[in-house]
Each structure stands twice: as C-alpha cells, then as structure tokens.
Amino acid sequence: ALSLWSLVAAGMGPWWALWLTLTLPQILEGQIPSKLQGFPELTSFHNDQGEWFVLGLAGNTYRREHQTLLSPYITLFELKNNSRFQVTNTMTRGKRCDTWSYALIPTTKPGQFTMENKGTGADREDIQVVETDYTKFALVLSLRQTSILTIIRVSLLGRNWRLPRRMIDKFVCLTRTQNLTKNNFIFPDVT
C-alpha cells in the first residue's frame, strides 16, 4: 500500500503526494469526483424529462478531424418507473436515421448516474450532470473505465440550437478541468 510518506520520499512532493492519495481511490474505481473545481456541487436534482440538442462534445478520444462525422443530434430523456432514465439519441446521417438508447440509473448523489451495462465484461460508465438550469442548457460529464484507460466525454446540451456565449464558456471551462484541449472539441454544424 502507498503511504503519504513513501510518495514524498519518492520525490513527488507533499502536495502532489497528498493529492494522489486522496484522488487515486476515485480514479481506480472509475468514479466522477464529487467536486469539480469552478462548478457548484448539485445539492438536488429534478428528474426533468424531455428533448435536448447536443451542441458540443469534447473527449480524450475525439479529435478535430472527427468533426465531419458528427451530425446534429437530439437526446430524449424519459423517466421510467420514477427511478431511471431511458435515454434515446437520434442522428441523421445522409438519408439514414441512426438511433441508439441506454438507461441511466441514479446513484445516491444528486445528478449522478451509472449507465446500465448489458452483458458480462461491459465497461463501467459514470455520468454526472455538472450544471443545468433545466430550461436552456446542461453540462454533462461522463467517465467510462475500460481495461486500459478512462474515456472522458463532456457534453453541452441545449433546449434549442442556440446558446448564449457564457454557456459555451462554461463548457470550455469544464473541458479544461478534465485536461482536454481545443483539439478534443467537436461541434455539429447546425446551420
């Protein structure tokens, strides 16, 4: 087991060692940190249903050249049995309409969910609504733990196709807290 003093002795410094000691269990478990710097922690969450437009994505597996693969798409959240959300995504690709769905199971923390995984060996995915006003925008952070890495995805959702600049700024700020760069951003062309 790692101790704070063994990390300091290894030349990491006391603050780095303390940070690693406090966050390593969360990283290893694939859980979203409960407090994201610069964003208020949700103290309650309304099980708001309805349609959202995906206005921006960022992630450590996205590259700027993937922009052409992303068409504008819609995400529909439906509350089932007053406990879990059925999420249905719809995207047009040329003359074809692609649809995919999954279920979100709430955790004990407001606005935090685990994606229901089917089958054995499925990757764990934790999803957190970082900030929302329920009527205009939502920022969502997703962490999926695979056998070799943690896949980070940040989504900017809107109730219509246009958002005020300050909402986009919040999206950029959240992506930076996840060590993503402008090369990890993709925005659908909504013209």
Textual characterization of the structure:
- By secondary structure, this protein is of the alpha+beta class.
- An 8-stranded antiparallel β-barrel has the order 1-2-3-4-5-6-7-8.
- α1 crosses α2.
- The protein is globular.
- The termini are far apart.
- Belongs to the calycin superfamily. Lipocalin family.
- GO terms for molecular function: small molecule binding.
- It comes from Myodes glareolus.
- This is Lipocalin/cytosolic fatty-acid binding domain-containing protein.
- InterPro entries: Calycin, LCN2/LCN12, Lipocalin, Lipocln_cytosolic_FA-bd_dom.
Kindly list the characteristics that best describe this protein.
3 helices; 191 residues; alpha+beta; globular; 9 strands; single chain; disordered N terminus
Helix and strand topology:
Layout: H1 4-12, H2 14-29, E1 50-59, E2 73-80, E3 84-93, E4 96-106, E5 112-115, E6 124-132, E7 137-145, E8 150-158, H3 165-177, E9 185-186
Antiparallel strand pairs: 1-2, 1-8, 1-9, 2-3, 3-4, 4-5, 5-6, 6-7, 7-8
**Sequence of strands across the biggest β-sheet:** 1-2-3-4-5-6-7-8
Instruction: State the share of residues found in helices, binned by percent.
Output: 10-25%
Indicate the mean pLDDT: 79
Oligomeric description of these chains: single chain
Secondary structural class: alpha+beta
CA gyration radius, whole angstroms = 18 Å
In brief, what are we looking at here?
This protein is α+β, with helices and mostly antiparallel strands and 191 residues long. It is 20% helix and 38% strand.
